[in-house]
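Notes from the 1:1 (GR / supervisor)

We went over the backlog. Supervisor wanted to see one worked example end to end before approving the batch request, so GR pasted a single chain during the call. The sequence is below; no edits were made to it. Supervisor asked that the structure be written out right there so they could see what the output format looks like.
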Amino acid sequence: MKYFVLSLLISSTFPFYAPQAVSQPNVHPAFTAPTAQQTRAAFEDYETKGAQCAKDRVRGRRCPAVMFSPEQPLNIPVQTVRGVELLTFRVSISTPQAQIRWMGYRFGLLGTRRTPDDREDSLRRLITRMQEAPKTITFTVKLIARQAWETTLPTFSFALVNRNQQRLWSSSQPDFECSGQDLICQVGLKESGQPVSFPLFVQLPTTPPSAVPFITDAMQTLKLLVTIDGHEEPIEFDLRTL
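Structure output shown during the call:
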């Protein structure tokens, strides 16, 4: 945990020196509120992609794969009553930009059912919502492949690791359980996944209390540590690609 203090330089010889405050770190730009112009640009870009997908579907074509935020693979071996099973996941970070891209893409898919006034109203409300600075970091964890759905999985734990190797644990308990016959549940875990959230800011034990970002603009990578059955599996994200 970092501590930030006010440094005072006192000298009778040089009385013109003023107190110098140690600057606090800034939150990483990937987790700051986008401007109205940035929101509109990202929305329109992915709206075009969604509209093209809608046209492809009408023509019986498969839509190109679209990624709203870079995904990282995660393979974890777990011990079940049937032996060791390898779980396959894909993990992404839901940044403000990723949310805007998803909204634009979805609007493009359904654009033929909306009027220009509907579009402008949706975009205006999105811009207003995005101007509120994020307070959490949310990961989306998708379960891509599992062999034995009838077995119960051990408990997962998730922690963020910053550049100082400090760990911040999540209180999220994602549910990856489905019955072998519940295909809707299985498809939901594969396509939509489960959220895992962390606070973006941490409190310092100062007087008065102050909050600093856990993910700062000095970082280029972010590590997510997944623990299950005592086994730790790290995933690294390049923050420059978000």
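Supervisor's comment: The helical segments are 36-58, 96-109, 116-130, 183-191.
Batch request approved.
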